[in-house]
Amino acid sequence: MTTLTIALSKGRILEDSLPLLAKIGLKPAGDIGRLLRVPTNHPNISLLIIRPADVPTFVEYGAADMGITGKDVLMEHGGEALYEPLDLGIARCRLSIAQKKDAPPHDGIRRLRVATKYLELTRRHYAAKGQQVEMIKLYGSMELAPLVGLADVIVDLVDTGNTLKANGLIETEIITQISARMVVNKASMKTKHAMVQDWLDRLSGVVERG
Ligand code: AMP
Predict the structure, then answer these.
(1) What fold is seen in the domain 93-178?
(2) Ligase as a keyword (predicted)?
(3) pLDDT tens digits, one per residue of 137-165
(4) In the chain, what are the domain boundaries?
(5) Is 156 in the pocket of ligand 1 (CB under 6 A)?
(6) Whether residue 93 has its Cβ less than 6 Å from ligand 1
(7) Maximum CA pair distance of the chain?
């Protein structure tokens, strides 16, 4: 019996992934809040519930055949080792630069300080503009950095903009639009092709375009 392991991203993406999977007839058959490996209503399919940033690693090494994670994570990870066959159109947001609403214009003498958890994406963005910046790696609460003088700007995900607004920050530039993607292990795509393709086709049929 061919088995399939699908890695799902905890948090916001999971909230959008479960209804999508339900639409194609795949439902967890266990406590999704507690279990890290969850059986499903299909005896040969199980789910792994892990951090979004770990999904590419699990899929790349074949610990999961397929996975759902954000385009932000894939761009930061460098997605060459994975297939990325489907934009799921869920967990839509944008990767943006933001600063304090009342920040004076940057003097251009000192290097701009950028706080982010997306070091690679941020480096690439400023390198493309020919601007050298000082990057500060944070793991969360990026919005705090400009308020306490840790950084001039942040690079973070923005959805409604409410978090920025609540912290007196404004979005100054959109780097890229983001959504969650289905990724597939390269070997699984060959060895389990019929099963992987079947689930990809079902998903593709329920994805909202645009
Ligand atoms: P919002 O206040 O709706 O703009 O949401 C912003 C906060 O939610 C920030 O802390 C973001 O890092 C986080 N966020 C927004 N959209 C996503 C997403 N699709 N996936 C993960 N985190 C997100």
Answers:
(1) D-Maltodextrin-Binding Protein; domain 2 (3.40.190)
(2) no
(3) 999 999 999 999 999 999 999 999 999 99
(4) 4-91+179-209, 93-178
(5) yes
(6) yes
(7) 64
